[in-house]
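Progress note, sequence design subtask.
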């Protein structure tokens, strides 16, 4: 796997990231939360405008590329006071179950170590059984749950997972 950092000044790459996110998220989340809420969330969090603002808030995004340089997924994180927050961890459906998520998580752990963090935290939708299984397989533990109002009468109803770097 190769990880290609997306720079905030690279508008074509941000557009490509938004397109990739839309493809993955529509396929994965429409059945979980419904197309209307998913479309709202994609616009709110994965549109070019939203991504551009996230870069200004110290988000870091990377394309995940396979051995023939196809972009098969992406990761996004940002440093917080006490942990590295793993905001995005997405892989195209036809590339799941091949050990790629493990490589992606190793990459995130290395990023956390370089930034001198010993804890990684993420949120996952309570009904996202596929992701929950993957995160638990990677050694993450459920530490909390939260319901976040994201506007337009929509909520993110999530578990909070944590990974302690040894």
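Output:
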């Amino acid at each position: 796997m190769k990880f290609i950092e997306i720079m905030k000044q690279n508008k074509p790459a941000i557009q490509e990231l938004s397109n990739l996110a839309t493809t993955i998220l529509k396929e994965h989340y429409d059945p979980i939360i419904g197309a209307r809420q998913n479309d709202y969330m994609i616009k709110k969090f994965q549109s070019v405008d939203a991504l551009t603002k996230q870069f200004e808030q110290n988000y870091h995004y990377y394309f995940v590329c396979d051995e023939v340089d196809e972009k098969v997924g992406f990761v996004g994180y940002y440093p917080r006071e006490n942990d590295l927050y793993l905001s995005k961890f997405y892989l195209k459906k036809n590339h799941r179950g091949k050990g790629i998520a493990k490589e992606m998580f190793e990459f995130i752990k290395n990023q956390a170590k370089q930034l001198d963090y010993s804890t990684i935290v993420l949120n996952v939708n309570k009904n996202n059984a596929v992701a929950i299984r993957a995160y638990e397989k990677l050694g993450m533990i459920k530490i909390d749950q939260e319901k976040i109002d994201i506007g337009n009468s929509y909520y993110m109803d999530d578990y909070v997972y944590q990974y302690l770097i040894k």
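The mean pLDDT is 96. Work on this subtask will continue into the next period as scheduled.
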